[in-house]
Amino acid sequence: MHLAQDMTKANDATDYGQSVVEGLKKEEKVEQAVVRNLSDEQDHVLKSFRLLIADLCQQFNGGHPGGAIGMAAIGVSLWKYVMRYAPHTPTYFNRDRFVLSNGHTCLFQYSFLHLTGYKGMTLDQLKSYHSDRVDALCPGHPEIEHEGIEVTTGPLGQGVANAVGLAMATKNLQATYNKPDFDVVSNHTWCMIGDACLQEGVALEAISFAGHLKLSNLTIIYDNNQVTCDGSVDLTNTEDVNAKMRACGWDVIDIEDGCFDIEGIVGALNKARASTDKPTFINVRTVIGIGSAVAGDAVAHGAAFGAADVANMKKLYNFNPEEHFVISNTVREFFADIPSRGQELVESWEKKLQEYEAKYPELGAEFRSRVEGRLPEDWKDLIPSSFPAQPTATRKSSGLVFNPIAEKVKTFMVGTADLSPSVNMIWKDKVDFQHPDLKTNCGITGNYSGRYIHYGIREHAMCAISNGLAAFAPNTFIPTTSSFFMFYLYAAPAVRMGALQHLQVIHAATHDSIGMGEDGPTHQPIELANLYRAMPNLLYIRPADSEETAGAWITAIEAKNTPTIISTSRHTLPQISQTRRDLVAKGAYVIEEVDDADVTLIGVGAELSHALDTAKELKAKNIKARVLSFPCQRLFDSQPIEYKRDTLRRHRGIPAVVIEPFAPNGWERYADAAACVKRFGHSLPGKAAYKYFGFDTPALVKKVEGYLQQPMTKRRRVDEGSSVADARNGGNVFSPASEVHGIGYGYENTDPFLSPATASSWPFDEFAHDPDYLASQEALRSLMFDTARSAAPTRVGSPVHGDDMTGGVNFKHVLANGGRIQYLKNYISQVAPWLDMFDSQRTFGVQLPALAKESPPLLYAILAIGARQLERKDKIQSSFDSLELYQEAIRLLTPLLQARDVHVIAACVILCCLEMFSASAQDWRRHLEGCAAVFEAFGVNGFSSDVLQAVFWCYARMDVCGALISDGTENTLLRPSAWLPHDMTDEDADALFRSSTVPDMYANYAVYLCAKTCELISDRNKHTELGAENGCDAQQFLARWSRLWDQLANWSLHRPPEMQAVESSNTTPFPHIFFAHWAAISSNQLYHTSCVLLLNANPRQKASLPQTPTTSIMWHVKRICGISLANPHEGCLNNAIQPLWIAGRFLSHSSEQALVVKTIRRIEILTGWTATWRIRDLESTWGYKIRGAV
Predict the structure, then answer these.
(1) CA 860 – CA 889 distance, rounded (Å)
(2) Model pTM?
(3) DSSP 8-state secondary structure symbol assigned to residue 153
């Protein structure tokens, strides 16, 4: 052991620190003998591994080094000596599974993946830990998409349950397919845990269950360092862990010195693998952060050790402190045989499987289909084609649909949390998954080939274990859980992790509404549907009857990369003749159509029959009501715009009212009003509860009728945020439990940005706060990030529901021909000029519209931004055509971006520009991040060819604006070095830009230099205020400042004629400077802006410069303002907003200030670009407001 040199000092001389020191000294005696057993090679590997971890954390000054360093010997024992795996065939079916439940120690796993030869985990990738690389394979916790990672872990304890699921999968496959002469499945599951995992309830549920099942193929390795974030473990836990594990049915093995005893750990691991009757718990005592100054201390858990301490560790280990990320030839050779050893396992298993298939052809074919994740082709034929006509609870319908499938198809593992009589998931002659020797008092027994799982009252573990079953291999198992819907609140963390990992798990949630009755508000899920509807990559489906229940199960089984909750009723529901199983996959569809309808009633799940009955009664009152069934919002969102419009018809002015006894949040995207519940439930029989809450037909008719009688101005559109009841007379018209509410919510963003602009200075924009827009914006951003990450090996993404995304453009129902022409004309005449501002080839104005004829997503993007600019100029605040065009563009982009089609990058940038119209200062960079990631991943830069070059520089101008907005706190998202060709340095930039024969590239040079200016100022601020080591100490800053100043001076001196003013005069208060070339306007303005920023950032250096006009801040300030006044070209005005703000802060005379304010107001009026927020920021700087109209 290597003790810290000054441990008491490291612990500030506390009793706790002294206790740690004494403990370490005692352990050192134990370890001295153990260390002598290490070979020189093993000792070198351990030291190298620990220093590699320390370096990886230190490079970005963050991460979790301590645990990973303490676990080094465990890792060597597993990856070198015990675990069976194949780095070059990472999906090898019979590999051992390793789960890192204490996922924050992920560098432990990443480093061994690199050392053992996983191809994707290069040293360069390993060094991406905690970096800003969007394609990093080393996120802060392990993620399933990356080779060698079995499950995503992070929320502590869930990994234990995942490991139990993986072990159960093995046991089931073994019992189903192995023969005495063929063990085609023989893998073991290893689960690494820390002290914190043993305190999480889900881990304890899973540990108890695994012991009960006697999962002898499961081993938990406990990194027992007795430290958590707050301090030592005995701060909160003083139990006898070994006794607890033995009581739960586990074998326990102790390792006294887990930091060095590789021999002992290997022996324990091999003994665990050989177990035949119990799972094994190996209690390995380690020292967190061993070798560092904070060894054994909670400080070692979640912070880099510091450069001095890392250097000291290297000295203690006889390594060169000046060398980093050292992996010697000795270490490489130590692990060199792993890939070939793995390939031997793969080849041997494949040969065995072929022999198995020859001897057992039927079973072999079935096993092969399981390995490949294929269902029998005729599985849908097992679903009844029709159902009894009598009223049926959909929980019972669920059993009618699914149980015949579960009986015949071995892929399904079905479980329940102690609610078998209620959830209707038992099929005839089912066999329970149990240890075959178990004899129960109730007489229910089973074996490992069984596929019905009694989880007990363990909802969280049930769903987390199911994630493990699903993760064993893609679609080899489709786990199905079941419980009351309310109890999926217990399970929510695991359901979320399943969605995050794209695991196909189906959750059958029953008793899903106030109709569940007398159990009352504790069991009536008013708010829970909103959680699951909002959860990404999860289908929450509420079927209305047996036919829709069939559709729900078909959709769930076909959603190969998406978990599903099928939400069913306790109470009986009428069978509705108009429902269709095939239309459930659409998310919503028309049940009853009416010409010239007055209202659309949306019925959801158990309340569809309420909507139909209400429509019938309204008809008797001469009110025409259409009726929709709306089982799944997310499925509906994925449909083409024309289908969504034709289904909802809100664009025709028909108001929609949704009927569902849940909280209404989220329905504002589809409906104008809601019959909903905004309080907890009440203990009454089901029918009485519906009546109490106002969901009987007479009450619903009265509410809808009253809503329609309101004047349009009082009805409250979806975005206006007040209920009809409130608008009429204080909310007392209806029952306080249920009202027809005009759905909408107020928006308040109080998060200040780092610039002078705050949320209070930002004007409210209804488009920007539309929930549909916000959801679509996030979808586009995620899509671009996922595309950028796809350079690394990943699992298959989620399928896109709905129609084929490719082919010609069909505008039917989306946009009338006149509207299309109007928006296209506006794009070409108003939008394209500022996109083409630095491009005389007019890529955006001429080339892209031509390309758009063959590119539907590009055409929709062009129409969307043309529509949005018109809406902004005309101040349209509702019924946004641009929103629907924007959504359709994203829908069409999805498969093309996933296929890494570079031609859609232009559409991404155009959509990013659209977002900028309404983007607040706080969100500007967020809108740009996705584009930056795509450019970086695709290798696009400012010197790419043809269209991509123009598209890049359009993005780059926005990126510079984002950096200017941050007021010195942030750099551009793409560092300026990424704007140049890969092998080009900044020293070559001047010649590179000037070598172009067109003035456009010289204008782009000004953009580049402005980005360099923002980079320098941001680096300097971070160095002085945060202590960042970024090459910007005083001497380095001066050198960088001087070089950049010279580059700017040379830019001005060597401008080609097109970049120079054609007329200039010294008028007051600002000079008149007129340019003929578009690009000259903004490039000169950016040049002056860069000079202002540089001169203001270094007044000492400024004083040493020759006293010429160019060294005067005010000279540049006045020229910034004068350029905007003399050059009213609309394409350039929007790029003047940030330079005018920077210049305006230096103005002191009221006449100058008034002229700047007038100019900024004029920019917003002419361009539709949000600009007036900068006036508020300037007024804040000046200390008073500027009065007067434009």
Answers:
(1) 5
(2) 0.71
(3) -
Residue type, 1072: H
What burial letters (b/e) apply to 238-261, b meaning 16+ CB within 10 Å? eeebbebbeebbbbbbebebbbbb
Give the active site residue among 459, 547, 607, 720.
459
Q: pLDDT tens, 858-907?
A: 999 999 999 888 887 777 765 568 888 888 888 888 888 766 666 688 99
Cα radius of gyration (the chain): 33
Q: How far apart are CA 926 and CA 780, in angstroms?
A: 12
* 804's tokens: 């084929």
Q: What is the mean pLDDT of the chain?
A: 87
| 251-260, 285-294, 840-849, 1161-1170: the lowest-pLDDT one | 1161-1170
User: 32-82: per-residue pLDDT in tens?
Assistant: 556 668 999 999 999 999 999 999 999 999 999 999 999 999 999 999 999
Does residue 459 have an active-site annotation? Answer: yes
Q: What is the pLDDT of residue 350?
A: 97
3-state DSSP percent of the chain in helix, strand and coil, to 5: 55, 10, 40
DSSP conformation letters of 1046-1090: HHHHHHHHT--GGGS-SEEE--SSS-EEE-SSHHHHHHHHHHHHH
The pLDDT tens digits for 100-109 are 999 999 999 9
Instruction: Indicate left, alpha or beta for 481 from its phi (over 0: left) and psi (-120 to 50: alpha).
Output: beta
Residue-wise over 927-959: b if at least 16 C-beta within 10 A, else e?
bbbbbbbbbbbbebbbbbeebbbbbbbbbbbbb
Alpha helices, DSSP H, located in 946-1077: 946-965, 989-994, 999-1026, 1034-1053
Q: Residue positions in the annotated binding site? A: 64, 104, 154-156, 195, 225, 227, 301, 395, 422, 487, 511, 519, 523, 570
If one compares 205 and 780, the residue with the highest pLDDT of the two is 205
Say which residues have a Cβ less than 8 Å from residue 991's Cβ, sequence separation at least 6.
none
CA distance 1076 to 1078: 7
**Residue 1131 confidence (pLDDT):** 64
The predicted structure's pLDDT at residue 1183: 83
pLDDT for residue 908 is more than 60: yes
Q: Give bridge partners of residue 447 from the DSSP assignment.
A: 433
Nearest to 536 by CA among 448, 619, 450, 638: 638
Mean pLDDT for 304-316 is 95
* Total residue length of the chain: 1190
Of 1171, 1166, 701, 560, nearest to 916 (Cα)?
1171
Which domains are seen in the chain, by residue range?
40-338 (3.40.50.970), 379-567 (3.40.50.970), 581-707 (3.40.50.920), 763-790+812-941 (no CATH), 975-1189 (no CATH)
Closest CA to 206 of 233, 153, 245: 245
- CA-CA distance, 455 to 413, in Å (whole number)? 12
Binding site members for Mg(2+): 195, 225, 227
The binding site for thiamine diphosphate comprises 104, 154-156, 225, 301, 487
The Cα 851–Cα 854 span in angstroms is: 6
Q: What's the CA gap between 272 and 748, in Å, rounded?
A: 57
The C-alpha angle with vertex 996 and arms to 947 and 1139, in degrees rounded to 5, equals: 75
Query: For the residues 328-337, what does the mean pLDDT come to?
Result: 97
Give Cβ neighbours of residue 360 (< 8 Å, ≥ 6 apart): 179, 182
- Tokens representing 215 are 């999962």
Please give the Cα distance from 822 to 825 (Å, whole number).
Answer: 5
pLDDT in tens, 191-232: 999 999 999 999 999 999 999 999 999 999 999 999 999 999
Give me the DSSP letters along 431-445.
-EE--TT---TT---
Residues 6+ apart with CB under 8 A from 390: 575
Q: Which residues are annotated as a binding site for substrate?
A: 64, 301, 395, 422, 511, 519, 523, 570
